[in-house]
Design brief:
heterodimer, A: alpha+beta, 5-stranded antiparallel β-sheet, 5 strands, B: mainly alpha, two-stranded antiparallel sheet, 9 helices, 5% strand, globular
């Protein structure tokens, strides 16, 4: 066999075998990985929709819903909104909001809002690349405490540096602003699209919002 | 490199004399990036070990049928396959670890320790010796990453995390619960500092042994 044919043959065979092996492996692990993703989403939704009148960010509560909000999501614009229900009534929403450009890329925050009065029920940072020990402190409940449990008009939702009521993280004002911008987006969705959220049909299984 | 080594010597070679991190200084990107905790270092080490064992074994098995001119593409395909398998397994069974290692798992493909061992060792030696070489190298790599991660975590956050899966966690508050932490050790400069001291320490010990 000439060298050139052997070359092509060997590389093709090995790549083919690798592809076969990987697809078998994928079939095996994909359901497990998807289940992990689902459980993670569900537990995040749990944290931001607690059953409490004035929740404390550092405490844990029972969830304020009895459905599976991860299966009951709607798209508002490009943003995914999970709906928590008690019976048929929507008790709260969890908005997967993307904040403005932070110190290092954008951050994604799951913002929980109570349906009837818009009180912020919880925050969970899903994705960020902020500096460990500075911007990353926004994932801590001590920082979130000053926002969780507050209504849309209760406080001025900007950092103290910009004349608001939220004490920014020292050395991480940009990260704090980005987090607040995500909260603003969620609050705007609650204010302007309440009816849509109530009426919109849930996304079909596996369907996603644009840009998510 | 002497080709006649005892079984133990082959393993000890990777662990000490030719340690991939401390002597060959290969694969420093994951070494420096993920070692902000002992558990992350351990996880990265084990993931790399799996890939190295797999690729060394397969490359050594296939060495007689791989034409010289396409050997590098073949090695890369073999390595990439094992890396993808590791990535899938982590996502399925160790979700938290796969989250914290993130992009650095797929990046094992370009870890020069693995391609280096395939080209320099597995393609020239028997399967048995290649497995031993992979064992030694990955033990050395894992141990170096674990030590680096442990030092950085203890000085940086005062804790030592050995295991973490869901709610289960093996974590020691080595320096007490009130330790304020030294941020720079968790950040990339801490990796360079610690690695520098580890290299110096290894050289000092080696000099004394002579």
């Amino acid at each position: 066999m000439p060298e050139s044919v052997k070359m092509i043959l060997v590389l093709t065979l090995i790549s083919g075998a690798a592809g076969l092996g990987l697809s078998a492996m994928n079939d095996l692990t994909k359901p497990l990985a998807e289940e992990n993703d689902r459980l993670f989403t569900l537990s995040s939704i749990n944290t931001v929709m607690p059953e409490a009148q004035t929740p404390d960010a550092c405490e844990s509560y029972e969830p304020a819903f009895d459905n599976s909000p991860d299966q009951d999501a709607v798209c508002v614009g490009n943003t995914i909104v999970y709906r928590g229900r008690k019976g048929d009534e929507i008790t709260g929403i969890a908005v997967k909001a993307i904040g403005d450009e932070a110190y290092s890329g954008t951050i994604t925050v799951l913002v929980g809002l109570r349906m009837n009065d818009g009180v912020l029920t919880g925050l969970k940072v899903l994705k960020h690349a902020e500096t460990p020990g500075l911007g990353s402190l926004m994932t801590k409940c001590e920082f979130q405490q000053q926002m969780v449990g507050k209504g849309v008009t209760d406080i001025n939702w900007t950092v103290v540096k910009d004349g608001g009521d939220i004490s920014q993280l020292s050395g991480a004002t940009i990260s704090s602003r980005s987090m607040l911008s995500a909260i603003h987006k969620a609050q705007a969705i609650w204010k302007d699209h309440k009816d849509e959220i109530q009426n919109d049909e849930a996304l079909a299984q596996g369907e996603v919002c644009d840009g998510q | 490199m002497a080709s006649k080594e005892t079984t133990l010597g082959e393993i000890a070679k990777g662990l000490w004399r030719d340690n991939p991190v401390l002597v060959l200084l290969l694969g420093l990107c994951p070494t420096l990036a993920v070692t902000n905790s002992a558990y992350n270092g351990l996880g990265m080490g084990v993931a790399t070990a799996f890939v190295l064992l797999g690729s060394n074994t397969l490359v050594s098995t296939l060495k007689s049928i791989i034409p010289k001119s396409v050997r590098i593409p073949v090695y890369i395909v073999v390595i990439a396959t094992f890396v993808t398998i590791v990535d899938m397994l982590l996502k399925a069974y160790m979700y938290e670890l796969s989250q914290s290692l993130g992009l650095f798992v797929p990046l094992i493909v370009v870890n020069c320790v693995i391609l280096g061992r395939a080209e320099a060792f597995a393609s020239k030696n028997s399967i048995g010796r290649s497995v031993l070489d992979a064992l030694g190298m990955s033990l050395g790599f894992t141990l170096a990453l674990f030590t680096l991660g442990a030092i950085r975590e203890i000085i940086g956050s005062g804790t030592l995390t050995l295991f973490q899966l869901g709610e289960t966690e093996v974590k020691f508050f080595v320096l007490g619960h009130n330790y304020p932490g030294i941020l720079v050790m968790i950040l990339p400069p801490g990796a360079f500092l610690t690695l520098g001291f580890m290299l110096a320490g290894k050289n000092a010990i080696q000099k004394r042994m002579k």
